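User: Predict the structure for this protein chain, please.
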Amino acid sequence: MGRNIVAAATHARMATDPRFGYSWTERWGATPEEWTVEGHTFEINVGDYDCSSSTITAWCKALQGTKYAHMLDGATYTGNMREVFLASGLFEWKPMSFTAAPGDLYLNEANHVAMCQNQVPDSLSEFSSSETGGVYGERGDQTGWESHICGYYDYPWDGILHYNGKADSDMTGWKENSKGWWWDNGDGTWPASDWKKVDGKWYYFDKNGYMVTGWLDWEGERYYLKPKTKATGNNYGYMVTGAHEIEGKRYWFDGNGAMFRDGFRKGASGKYWYAYAKDGHRISGAIKTNGSGGIKLP
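Assistant: Here is the predicted structure, written as structure tokens:
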């Protein structure tokens, strides 16, 4: 799934939400709200926009999490959109004989811009005018037509800002929002209630898709996922193996990450055996017998 699909879906949602109207009073929205569109989570301001600020916003949100995230920040109105969008390296200027794709922008540099939603049937989304027929009005869509999706029409347009797909290679990877870190598979999906190996390390993601840290009980085994500390920085969340000290106690995790417990294991030198309690911590000092010569673990 390309970033153009995310941009088109974001603009379509804005254009059909009655809380979004047309006005120059706010122009960039007012109240922040978290949205998830096509698997991408971001914060957007709910409120009034105009034709250019709405399409710019939709594309800026679609590019979050890529190296191009701030390349469109300089675009502010129809008069400089062509320059800024082309300078980003993500768009090409096409004549009106070109068939636009979802997310492409129909641009009249002096007055108006709209976003292509579909090729067949050909439709676009746009913010057109306030309830007064001008550029100022009350917040929200008062008429059902301030922002909307409709069939294609010729404004007339000067040309098409066509997305070339260069940012799509950046879709796969780690993403973060207010709830935590998650992994974007790059196709609109993410791991949930499952493991994912990233750069040679295993991570577990909860039912909502967020990375888990600390102790994890999974399919009858116990695992430890490196928690965040001042020393770890962003290098945390991965499954540990081998010997680890946790809250003052020593534990052993095998090569699959499962904690060893309720038994003995030989140390790395091969000279010593170590006893581990039922809760997994390594026992130090004398070990009690069960009265018949057997070993009794706590």
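The chain has a mean pLDDT of 90.
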